[in-house]
Amino acid sequence: MLGTCMLIGDGILTPAISVLSAMEGIRAPFPSVSKSSVEAHYAVVLVLFLLQKFGTSRVSFMFSPIMGAWTLCTPLVGIYSIIQHYPSIFRALSPHYIFHFFWRNGKEGWLLLGGTVLCITGSEALFADLGHFNRSSIQIAFLLTIYPSLVLTYVGQTAYLIKNPNDHDDGFYKFIPTAMYWPIFIIATLAAAVASQSLISATFSVIKQSVVLDYFPRVKVVHTSSNKEGEVYSPEVNYILMILCVAVILSFGDGKDIGNAFGVVVSLVMLITTILLTLVMIMIWRTPPWLVAVYFFTFFTMEGVYSSAVLSKIPEGG
């Protein structure tokens, strides 16, 4: 139940932080625009939830071009930034730097680790849409497009920030060349909506399963596809998510504060998933004990460190 609650929380926070982060780009060229006066935040969120009743299949024809543009444009900007600012940045991919970082910073390094959780968000929901896509398509898409794109984008931002450390509060939009600013802004906003769609669909799916198991109050569940059983929609759940999402934006009003809460949810989802998968490996798959131990120790250690770091962010919004 805790894992289900965390996933539902993910479905609330993902649209909020995704849209809020994407729309931050409005304030870069227009600094006079305050955080609380950007009505476009709410407009995007409302449109996103109002489209849910049509089902994923009705709007999914837009997803591939949007995500294709996103995964192509951002790494290209990253490569440009690397060449312009710090070509030797790829040395940072060496694992020995992280050991050196923790050795030098100690407890402070552990606390700073909580600030990096947002770089890996999405991985906790990588297979959340198995009702919409098969496992192979998800694996191929991640390994051949998403992962390389993310690495090049983050490395490009890092190269820019090394030369412009004062821009760390808005590293993404600051590292984009002026000529590409507005096209990237539009693509980022659309990509945020697509990313949000993934978690909203996952929330519908997990609530449907919870209803079947009598772990959740009875709600109306509509199958929006005649071909894919996993594509479902719940009007009540959709509007509750919409209201809570808008409430989160109104309450926090800042991507950083929502990010702290988001980090807690994401890290706990990962941790609980690891524990549950370990039980499945032991009780259902009958996996050899040594392999279970290797899996559990590796992932539980990594996710446990992340979780402990982000839990320290609770006083700041988590």
SS field, number of helical segments: 12
The percentage helix is: 55-70%
Question: How many angstroms separate the termini?
Answer: 20 Å
Structural class: mainly alpha
Tell me the CATH architecture: Up-down Bundle
Strand content: under 5%
Major pleated sheet: 2 strands, antiparallel
Query: Unreliable segments (pLDDT under 50, ≥5 consecutive)?
Result: none
Can you walk through the features of this model?
One of its GO terms (cellular component) is plasma membrane. One of its GO terms (molecular function) is potassium ion transmembrane transporter activity. It comes from Populus davidiana. By secondary structure, the protein is mainly alpha-helical. A two-stranded antiparallel sheet has the order 1-2. The mean pLDDT is 83. The radius of gyration is 20 Å and the shape is globular. α1 packs across α10 and α1 (2-23) runs antiparallel to α11. It has one domain (2-316): Amino acid/polyamine transporter I, CATH 1.20.1740. The longest helix has 32 residues, at 181-212. The protein is built from twelve helices and two strands; from the N terminus they run αααααααααββααα.
Question: Topology, pairings included?
Answer:
Blueprint: H1 2-23, H2 40-50, H3 56-59, H4 63-85, H5 96-105, H6 107-113, H7 135-163, H8 171-174, H9 181-212, E1 222-223, E2 232-233, H10 235-252, H11 255-283, H12 289-311
Antiparallel strand pairs: 1-2
